Amino acid sequence: MLKLLYAPTSPFVRKVMVCAHLAGLADRIEWLSSAAHPIHRDARIAAHNPLAKVPTLILEDGQALYDSRVICEYLASLGGNDHLFPSGGARRWQALTRQALGDGLLDAALLARYELTARPAEKQWTGWREAQLTKVDACLADIEAQASALATNRPCIGGVAIGCALGYLDFRFPDIDWRATHPGAARWFGVFGALPAMQATMPHE
Hints:
Elements: E1 2-5, H1 11-22, E2 29-32, H2 43-46, E3 56-58, E4 64-65, H3 68-78, H4 89-117, H5 126-146, H6 157-172, H7 178-181, H8 183-192, H9 196-199
Parallel strand pairs: 1-2
Antiparallel strand pairs: 1-3, 3-4
Helix pairs in contact: 1-3, 1-6, 4-5, 4-6, 5-8
Protein name: Glutathione S-transferase
GO molecular function: transferase activity
Pfam families: GST_C_2 (PF13410), GST_N_2 (PF13409)
């Protein structure tokens, strides 16, 4: 049995679990409670991952894998899913670059959120938060430009990362209303977000 240190609201955990569903491995993963936090280290995670971050996957032999990029590729390989991570050529580099785009949007959104939720009010920096949200806007513009080329059937890791990023904006940044200004991305996500793997991994408090 594989074991996953997780947080129910983490978009990177969701990314891993979407891949687990797409690879047919979701029922082989045991979820281990943790209290991941950007400041306070959870010893349960740190025992397996020096960064004390989720997701961290513990294999049956005790080896730990992290971060989401490594875990997702491992699950795709273990489950024999050959379209999540194309084996080579232009399709692979495109998939990995789109994964970086989705992950980058998430990194910026998380930093913007942490500025208000993890940093004391007297130390919060409005300019820093606005700079992160500018990155979010730039990523959304890039996703919009690529939306017509994103797959809904047999998605690759790039689509999974982008889908989880857009889902995180819905979950934590409803005020951004990204659909109003990115109709192509909204149409794609309307289909992609309805996939069973996405529906089964909706974040919750």
